[in-house]
Design goal:
α11 (about 195-205) links the parallel β1 (about 180-185) and β2. The longest helix has 14 residues, at about 15-30. A 5-stranded parallel β-sheet has the order 2-1-3-4-5, with helices on both faces. The chain contains 15 helices and 5 strands. Helix content is about 60%, strand content about 10%. α7 (about 105-115) packs antiparallel against α8 and α8 (about 120-130) runs antiparallel to α9 (about 135-145). It is α/β, with parallel strands linked by helices. The protein has helices spanning about 1-15, 15-30, 35-45, 50-65, 70-80, 85-100, 105-115, 120-130, 135-145, 165-175, 195-205, 215-225, 235-245, 260-265, 285-290; strands at about 180-185, 205-210, 230, 250-255, 275-280. It folds into 2 domains: about 1-145, Serine Threonine Protein Phosphatase 5, Tetratricopeptide repeat, CATH 1.25.40; about 165-290, Rossmann fold.
C-alpha cells in the first residue's frame, strides 16, 4: 500500500488529480479507516470546491486518528474559507496542542479570534506568537493596534515569508512601479489549495492575478502582465516559465522550493538565471538541495 500511496501523492503534486484520486479511492476500499488516504481525498475535494465532501473526509480522518496534525490544519483552513470561525478556532486550538511552537498557527488563531469578536483571546494568542518569535513586525503592529498603542514605534514592512531579502525585493519593486506593483502567482492546477493567505495578503498591497493552469497562452499572458512573478513550486511550471516564456527575463521572479521538487530532480532543469530570489520553505530543504 505504501508504494501506491506515494505514487498517488506524486501524481497529485504533478497536477494529475484524476489519476491520484482513483488510486486513493481504490486504496480506501481496502483501508477504509486510513487517515492519510482520507486526508488526501479531502484535499482533492477542496481543490475541486466540493466543500461538504472535503469536510466529510477530514472528519473521518480525525475519527481514525485524533491527533493527526495535517488533517486538523486542513479542516481549520476549510472552516476559515467558509467563514465558520468558531469551528476554525476549535481545530486550530487542537493544532496548537500538538505543535505549540508554531507561530503560523498562533497567528491564524489570533485572526480567527478577531473574526469571532474575542479581542482578549486574540491578544493573548498574538503575544504568545511574539514570545516564540519576536521578529514579526506585522504581528507586533497588529497587537499594538488591539491594545490601543497607536504611537507604537516601527511599521510592519510586509506580511510575507520571514525573509528580509524577500521583503526588500517586494518593497523595491513596489517603489519602482506606479501606481501599484502587479504580481502574478503561478501554480499548476490542484496545488494551489493553500495559497489563499499569500494571495489575500498580496491583494492588500498589490494588483494580483492568479494563474492555476497548464495552458501555455494563459501562463504567458499572466507573466507578460506582471511586474513580479511568484512561482509557488519549483516544478514543471518553473521549468516551463524559465525556459519557454521570453518575457520572464524582464520580470522579478520569486521561486519557493519545497522538498518534493528537490527530491524529484526538478531543480537542474530550471534556468536559475531567470530567478531573482529563491525561498526554501525550511532549512532542511536547503540542506537536502545542497547535498544532492
Amino acid at each position: 500500500m505504501e508504494n501506491r500511496l506515494k505514487h498517488g501523492e506524486a501524481l497529485f503534486a504533478e497536477g494529475k488529480i484524476g489519476e491520484a484520486k482513483k488510486i486513493f479511492d481504490d486504496l480506501l476500499k481496502e483501508n477504509p479507516e486510513n487517515h492519510e488516504l482520507l486526508n488526501n481525498l479531502g484535499v482533492i475535494s477542496c481543490s475541486q470546491n466540493n466543500v461538504q465532501e472535503a469536510e466529510d473526509y477530514f472528519l473521518r480522518a480525525i475519527s481514525a486518528k485524533k491527533d493527526y496534525f495535517n488533517v486538523l490544519l486542513n479542516l481549520s483552513k476549510l472552516y476559515q474559507n467558509t467563514e465558520r470561525w468558531e469551528q476554525a478556532a476549535n481545530q486550530l486550538e487542537k493544532c496548537i496542542s500538538i505543535a505549540d511552537q508554531n507561530t503560523d498557527i498562533f497567528n491564524q488563531l489570533g485572526k480567527v479570534y478577531l473574526k469571532i469578536g474575542d479581542t482578549e483571546k486574540a491578544k493573548v494568542t498574538l503575544r504568545k506568537s511574539l514570545e516564540l518569535n519576536p521578529d514579526q513586525e506585522i504581528v507586533r503592529e497588529s497587537l499594538s493596534a488591539l491594545e490601543g498603542d497607536v504611537g507604537a514605534p516601527g511599521k510592519a514592512v510586509e506580511k510575507s515569508p520571514n525573509d528580509q531579502e524577500l521583503r526588500e525585493l517586494l518593497n523595491n519593486a513596489r517603489l519602482q512601479q506606479s501606481p501599484r506593483t502587479k504580481i502574478t502567482v503561478l501554480c499548476l492546477p490542484g496545488l494551489q489549495s493553500f495559497l489563499g493567505d499569500i494571495v489575500d495578503f498580496f491583494k492588500t498591497k498589490y494588483d494580483v492575478r492568479t494563474c492555476y493552469s497548464k495552458n501555455n497562452q494563459e501562463i504567458e499572458s499572466a507573466v507578460q502582465w506582471a511586474d513580479i512573478v511568484w512561482l509557488e513550486w519549483a516544478n514543471e511550471m518553473a521549468i516551463h516559465v524559465t525556459n519557454n516564456v521570453p518575457s520572464v527575463s524582464e520580470k522579478q521572479v520569486i521561486c519557493r522550493i519545497h522538498s518534493y521538487e528537490v527530491l524529484n530532480g526538478y531543480l537542474p532543469r530550471i534556468q536559475w538565471s531567470k530567478i531573482s530570489k529563491t525561498v526554501f520553505v525550511a532549512d532542511h530543504v536547503l540542506k537536502i538541495a545542497l547535498e544532492l
